[in-house]
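INFO  loader      accepted 1 record
INFO  loader      residues=329
INFO  predictor   begin
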Amino acid sequence: MRRCAAYGMMMRRLLLAALALPVLQAAETAPVAHDDLREVQRQVQARLPDVRPSVVAILTGDGTASGVIIDAGGLVLTAAHVAEQPGRELRIVLEDGRRVSGTTLGLDKTTDAALLQLHDSGRKWPHVPVNRRVLQAQPGTWCFALGHPGGFDKARGVVLRVGRIVKQTANALQTDCVLMGGDSGGPLFNLQGEVIGVHSQIWEGRDENMHVSMAPFLRAWDDLKSSLVIQTWGTGSGGYLGLAADLDETSGRLEVLEVFPNSPSAQAGLRAGDRILALDDEPLLSLAHFSNAVKTRAAGEQVRLRVDGTGGEREVEITLAQRPSEPEG
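INFO  predictor   done
INFO  writer      dumping C-alpha cells
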C-alpha cells in the first residue's frame, strides 16, 4: 500500500485522469458502448459544477488531504487517518483558495471514517447530499472521484477521475478510480451527485483503490458527532437478524434455512422456507449482498424485508439486535 507518489508520475497520471480516464477504465473492466460512455460523460459534466465547491483541501501539518462538506453548517466527511484524533485544529482550503479553520470530531479507526467541523457557524457552506441507500453502490456502477492530489492548486482546481465500483463490502467500496497522495478523505460520488464514499487507501493496482462507504458514517453518526473514537468493529457490531439463509440456485432467491430461537427474525414471524426478496425495497443479488446489508446497519435500527412464503408475499418489519459473540440456537 502507498499514500504518495513521485511528482512527475503524479502529473502524468493526473493528465490521464483528466483527459482519457473514462475510455481507459471502460476498456479495463468490460466493453462499454460509446453511447453509454457519452451518457456517463453527460451526467458527470452536469453534476460537476454543483458538487466541486464542496470539496476541500485539508492541511495536516506534514502534508495535505481532502474532504467534502455535507451540510450547510460546515460538517465535513474525511478519513480517520487524516483526522488522527478528536479536537485537532486544521486549516481548510476552499475551492476559491480561501483558508478557514476546522476541528476534528469523532473517528472510526477500524473503517477509516471521520468527521470535521468547520468554524464560522453563521456562514452557509456549499455542500452536497449523502446517499443513504448503501446497497445501491453495487459492482459495475459508474462513479466519479474528486480530490486535491498533490495538494491544493487553484489554477488546476479539483481533480476528476471517472470509473466504476469493483467490489462492495460491509464498510468499504473498491473502485478503479485512480487515486494519489492528497486524495485521502475526498469524496466518491454516484452519477446523481451524492456522496457514496470517502477515499481511504491507495494500492498499487489501478483497480484496487479503497473508499470508506457511507455505512460506517451512518451507523455511528451520533458517536462521530460526539467526538468519540471507535476502536473496534466486528463481533458485537452491526445489526443482527438471527437467521441462516442461502441462495437457491433454482429460483435465484435467498431462502431462509433456519430461524434462531428468540432472535429478531423469530419474533417477527420469519420461518424456515421463507424466501427473502428485498431489504428496504432493495433487491438482494446474493447472500454476501444480504449479509453486508445487515452488517452496515446498527443494532436498534429497523429494517423492512419483503418475504415470499406460505400465503404469498408479505412485508416484515424487524428491529435489529446487537450481534452476539456466537450464533443463537
